[in-house]
Specification:
Strand order of the largest sheet: 14-13-12-11-10-9-8-15
Number of helices: 22
Shape: globular
CATH topology of the largest domain: TIM Barrel
Number of domains: 3
Strand content: 5-15%
Oligomer: single chain
Distance between the termini: 24 Å
Length: about 575
């Protein structure tokens, strides 16, 4: 079977299949005000008990920062007034009982998150399901019947692992897991990486054929699962497992090794982060700062825009924990697939081509200027830079820079300290920005190439649409030419060029991007060691030769085959 490898390593063991009972509708309508009040009281009590349970988990378990952050986000969701308000509305206006009202509301939220294009945001649907099930359990006062201890050498098989499952399972004897659904950014994947457990997600319905006790080989790098393998296959994978363990030890030892090519070119490897709690993983993997701080999570899971002081404290904490390393702060990137419950975005036929990111900020100046003031105030605590997303023309850059100057003027007038010469740059993720990079470079201090959207927009291919996902191809010559042009124009104008899209963390693309002249890569923290290995094993001259060869190729399949020779 084949899935998505999300946490590398080879596991050889026995399957334990987790069966979950799906919550069901009761179907009883409430006919009197007394019944409705009673169900509202029951629902509120269930939320309180659910919050208490999560707080108990936090206080009694020995948690990593990643685990603790996940539980904190669940407490926020349990306190979300929009979830409660929607449930109460269904009870009062539609005569639904609390059980059915909650199931409908949770299903609606899950649908919204799962329809998002951003992997990280789509994976948050698991949080919604998890807190919904926790409230439901307390609402119906049903006992959980989970196995918490496992035999040594257990490989868990499940439809999905909820965040709570992933955090609370006793992993002492669990050597791997595989799920039917999930992605690179699901909580199951994040926790597996943090705990160093090989994992494969997104295996599809074929996984249900696996039975308790089946012998399993699981490859968390390639996504391969072998069920009831023969002796030869087991022996091959035992050898592969031993080799991987030695390689993992070696990669871990690279933490303090500078990323320098064999002919002396220094490369900067940074991480994409969402909050101050992400820093330990960055430094543990040898990262040199944050090439992308996503700020939109600060705006989600609440009922109003965060105040300036609250935003300031958030950016300040990121800066204080950065150990003096640079942090590129992307201004709020909402719209498209990221919606705020308290900010009514218009319904659009093509939201990804519509009212989003910098377009909202330039139109809703008060929202934008509040965020800019908060970032500026935090800039005295670390090396912060400001980055504007979704720029498509020079006019937008000039407007954004003017508003940034207005924010500075307000702070000066109020005698508030900030870094006056803070760097301001843009994401290159729209083809019009890429092809006019020579013009835009004169307006900003740096570029950061967002390959996910750049690839999607260039090829007119939604990578989440199964029918055309094969067209989403970062190695397509059109995408590579745009990337190369942006890097070239940045060098000509003497401005810094980095990359923060998924391609930056793909070791297969590392030499190709180096050959184009890219010297600043930002990626998921866990990917840094593998990219660093490619950098320190090869020369700048070799990388340039690879790009020269690839420039003449017409087909991405040929390009990928050629690049595979060097990995």
């Amino acid at each position: 079977m084949k899935g998505i490898g999300v946490s590398p390593g080879i596991a050889i063991g026995k399957a334990f299949v987790i069966q979950k009972k799906e919550p069901s509708f009761i179907g009883i309508l409430l006919t009197t005000p007394v019944e409705k009040v009673a169900d509202t009281i029951r629902f509120d009590a269930a939320i309180k008990r659910a919050i208490h349970e999560v707080e108990q988990l936090k206080s009694t378990l020995s948690l990593s920062e990643e685990d603790s952050a996940i539980l904190d986000s669940q407490i926020e969701l349990l306190n979300d007034p929009e979830i409660r308000g929607n449930v109460i509305d269904k009870i009062e206006a539609q005569d639904k009982n609390a059980n059915d009202a909650l199931l409908e509301v949770i299903a609606g939220f899950v649908e919204v998150f799962e329809s998002m294009d951003d992997d990280y945001m789509r994976a948050r649907a698991a949080d919604i399901k998890d807190i919904g099930n926790r409230i439901l359990k307390n609402l119906n006062q049903s006992a959980e019947n989970k196995q918490t201890t496992f035999e040594p050498g257990t490989i868990l098989i499940a439809e999905d692992l909820s965040p709570s499952d992933a955090i609370t399972l006793d992993v002492k004897n669990i050597i791997g897991f595989a799920t039917q659904i999930g992605s690179q950014t699901s909580h199951a994947a994040i926790i597996a990486k943090a705990k160093g457990i090989p994992a494969v997600v997104g295996c599809g319905s074929a996984l249900i054929e696996i039975k308790n006790g089946d012998a399993i080989i699981l490859d968390g790098a390639t996504g391969l699962l072998v069920v009831n393998p023969d002796k030869e296959s087991i022996n091959q994978h035992i050898t592969k497992r031993d080799v991987f363990k030695e390689q993992a030890k070696h990669l871990k030892s690279l933490k303090d090794t500078p990323a320098i090519t064999t002919d002396g070119t220094r490369i900067k490897l940074s991480a994409n982060i969402s909050n101050a709690g992400d820093w330990p993983a960055v430094f543990e993997n040898g990262g040199e700062g944050a090439g992308l701080l996503r700020t939109e999570l600060l705006f989600m899971g609440r009922d109003s825009f965060p105040r300036e002081d609250e935003q300031f404290e958030f950016y300040k904490q990121v800066a204080l924990h950065s150990k003096g390393n640079p942090v590129v702060v992307r201004t709020i990137d909402i719209g498209g697939d990221k919606h705020l419950s308290y900010f009514n975005l218009p319904a659009e036929l093509n939201p990804f081509l519509g009212y989003r990111a910098i377009r909202i900020c330039l139109d809703q100046k008060d929202i934008f200027i509040t965020q800019l003031k908060a970032i500026l105030r935090a800039s005295v605590f670390g090396d912060l830079k400001i980055m504007f997303p979704m720029i498509s023309n020079i006019h937008e850059i000039r407007l954004a820079k003017n508003i940034l100057e207005e924010a500075k003027a307000i702070l000066r007038q109020d005698r508030v300290s900030f870094k006056a010469d803070i760097k301001a740059g843009i994401m290159i993720e729209v083809p019009s920005a890429a092809v006019t990079a020579d013009l835009l470079a004169k307006e900003v201090d740096f570029f950061s190439i967002g390959t996910n959207d750049l690839c999607q927009y260039t090829l007119a291919a939604d990578r989440m649409n199964e029918k055309i996902a094969h067209l989403y191809d970062p190695f397509n010559p059109a995408v590579l030419r745009l990337i190369s042009f942006v890097i070239e124009q940045g060098a000509k104008q003497s401005i810094h060029v980095g990359m923060c899209g998924e391609m930056a963390g793909d070791p297969l693309a590392t030499l190709l991007l180096l050959g184009m002249g890219l010297k600043d890569f930002s990626m998921s923290a866990a990917l840094i060691p593998a990219v660093k290995q490619v950098v320190i094993d090869n020369s700048w001259e070799k990388a340039k030769g690879i790009w020269e060869r690839v420039k003449g190729m017409h087909d991405s399949k040929d390009i990928i085959e050629y690049l595979t020779e060097f990995n």
